[in-house]
């Protein structure tokens, strides 16, 4: 699990109040969780920022959440300064020193005088330079000419970050010096008030950790219609919060330099990669409303539809390599289909009209064929034209070749021939600028044709959803292997692996685990390294040997879904280190039903697809049944002689009935008397996508 629940990134400012209207020079902040960023927050001055951060920290801690707070100014100075100023090498002593000496109100502050005062201690020519005020200040050089610093110009970290400004420069575009002087007192009060740890000076094991960030290390300036600082806080907060625990651990693992360090140096690719990841699902995404005993099927599906979102990364890929993938963005036609008006038949092109009677038009030499650039036909003439040819200028109508006679260089036929007959208009299928294929569509043969027809070259697609499949149960033996008395062959795994493959996802076979909690935990850990979703079968109820539900409950993120459905036992839906787990019942009939009815649409959503609604149709029943109210039933069924037949036994251990069937008859939640001929809803397995 990510060790930080909440990430906040703050773009600081060393200046004064910037007014009520959001603007560029202000302080901007953004909060993100699990790869999902909130709206950026405009903070007009440091008092407002300090209050806002204090409220944020208080509420996050009260909710038991850990916070990683990033600020875009150095937390320390080049070697030697701390000792010279405070008598100790502890960089946090500099924080306290500034907190004690800085005077700050939204309208004015003493940063230039304070910098001059420090400079005076070291001979009056440095380390600070740049005076943003009109009056001269003794000991503070305005330019670098009279400047001399007793300390190195940059920190170690800055030698790895090209373009970074020296912390001694107090002003000028991009300078960071004033931000440090005006920022450290605020951070000092917040760190004391909330017992925050400061990276990399201190261990990162507290509820709130401050890190120094530099958005430009990984990010550009963003879209031109947005304020750069606001955009950068959003992007950086989002990408940091999308890091895995392991990636974050690696990035935070640096020497405890007393100069401070910039978060992410050397790991820019990891951060950029994280920025392409969609938001993770929240740990509570499978929570059910309290007090519900048996959840109706439609309610359960509604919750999954509402709570689940795509979990796979988005990539750009050439359209000819995109079949089978799910579109992550709408594709807009860059060219109309058809691109030009053209003829739908072989015949003769001319200007059509309402005239009744005989037409006899001079026939131009040559012809217009598919692929020819459109030529020109003078008014009153006709031209030979072949299917698919663009209409020449001067032609708007085509008469079928079967309806004409050609003689003496003329073509003759009877009118009227309606204007536009036998032609296709430009863009009548898809017009340039229209959405040709919508986001959420899995690209199949039909989409491949449409995308090609409108001139698409590259598309944005989701990486395939990797689904781990794991069977649990002490009784299970791999099919075909010797089985001792009391053992059974694992039927669920081959079934589930094939369902996943047919649904367009990537199955990841995680084998079987006995009813042993440690072994199961170990296997789940292996699964999350290779998959985006885990499907288990067996052990999902609340019994002694139901270890899937027990482990997920222990991990603090599981809900036992008692769905009013037959066949079916409770589903254990939970999260294992941020990866969703679908705990299906062990019984193969229930496992397949639940996989198709619940896990199928859920996986579609997580793969980036639109929520699928398996389409059924009414057919007369070929059986008799009294259906009890209070649950939805899925009967193994097939159609013969126009009637729905159901499998002879409803026993949920009868695996052969799954193969006998070609679909389900879905009986509604309410009670129902079914006689031969009663209309029932039949849903072919194909409608579930398998
Ligand atoms: P459980 O959900 O673990 O209580 O299992 C319910 C029933 O399904 C038991 O009879 C199990 O033996 C059976 N079962 C569990 N997993 C499988 C499997 N992978 N293949 C076939 N049967 C299974
Ligand atoms: Mg079991």
The poorly predicted ranges are: none
Q: Say how many strands there are.
A: 37
Strand content bin: 15-25%
Mean pLDDT: 94
Which ligands accompany this protein?
Answer: adenosine monophosphate, magnesium ion
The share of residues in helices is 10-25%
Q: What can be said about the biggest beta sheet?
A: 7 strands, mixed
Query: What value does the Rg take, in angstroms?
Result: 35 Å
| Class based on secondary structure composition and strand pairing | alpha/beta
What is the number of helices?
A: 16
Terminal-residue CA separation: 33 Å
Principal-axis shape equals flat
List the helices and strands and how they pair.
Blueprint: E1 6-11, E2 27-33, E3 36-37, E4 41-43, H1 46-62, E5 67-71, H2 81-86, H3 91-101, H4 111-121, H5 156-159, H6 177-194, E6 197-198, E7 208-212, H7 228-241, H8 245-252, H9 268-275, E8 295-296, H10 297-307, E9 314-318, E10 326-327, E11 331-332, E12 342-343, E13 347-350, E14 353-368, E15 382-385, E16 397-400, E17 405-407, E18 410-417, E19 423-424, E20 435-437, H11 445-453, E21 458-462, E22 466-472, E23 476-477, E24 488-489, H12 492-502, E25 506-513, H13 517-528, E26 533-537, H14 547-554, E27 558-561, E28 563-566, E29 571-576, E30 579-584, H15 588-606, E31 617-620, E32 625-627, E33 632-640, E34 643-646, H16 656-660, E35 663-667, E36 672-674, E37 679-684
Parallel strand pairs: 1-5, 5-7, 6-7, 8-28, 14-15, 22-25, 22-26, 23-24, 26-30, 28-33
Antiparallel strand pairs: 1-2, 2-3, 2-4, 9-21, 10-21, 11-20, 12-19, 13-15, 13-16, 14-18, 17-18, 27-29, 29-30, 31-37, 32-36, 33-34, 33-35, 35-37
Helix pairs in contact: 1-6, 3-6, 7-9, 10-15, 12-15
Adenosine monophosphate binds at residues 471, 473, 475-476, 488, 490-493, 537-540, 585-588.
